[in-house]
Amino acid sequence: MLSVFRSIPTQMDYKGQKLAEQIFQGIILVSAVIGFIYGYITEQFGWTVYIVMAGFALSCLLTLPPWPMYRRNPLKWLPVQESGVEEKKAADRKPKRHSKS
Question: Which keywords does this Swiss-Prot/TrEMBL entry list (predicted)?
C-alpha cells in the first residue's frame, strides 16, 4: 500500500510553481468578481461566499497536486563532490580573530 504513495511524484519545478500561483490567483479573482456580481444582483451575500468558496476549491484541486504540467522543466543538479575536498578547503582557512573593543 505504501509503495503506491511512494510512486506518486511530489516535486514541482520553479516555472510550475509560478504557473500554479498564476492559475490560483486567476481563479480566485474571477470567482470573486462573479460571486460579487451575482450576489449583488440577487441581493444575497451568501451566494457571493458560496461562489468564492467554490472557486477556492477548484483552484486548490488544480494547483495543489503536482500535475505533469507543473513538472516540465526539471532542475539540473550539480554532481556530488567528495567530502575530502570540502574538509581541505575548510582547513586551509585561517580563523578570524575578533578585535577587542
Answer: Endoplasmic reticulum, Membrane, Transmembrane, Transmembrane helix
DSSP 43: T
Does a structural domain hold residue 91? Answer: no
- Find the distance separating the first CA and the last CA of the chain, reported in whole Å: 63
Tally of domains within the chain: 1
**Cα atoms found within 13 Å of the Cα of residue 43, Cβ hemisphere only:** 0
In a domain, 8, yes or no: no
Instruction: List CB contacts of 20: < 8 A, sequence separation 6 or more.
Output: 12, 63, 70
Q: What is the domain range of residue 33?
A: 14-70
Is 16:76 a contact under the CB 8 Å cutoff? no
Whether residue 95 is contained in a domain is answered as: no
Q: How far apart are CA 63 and CA 12, in angstroms?
A: 11
pTM as predicted: 0.68
Average pLDDT over residues 67-71: 89
Residue 35 has pLDDT above 80, yes or no: yes
| Confidence at residue 45, expressed as pLDDT on a 0 to 100 scale | 95
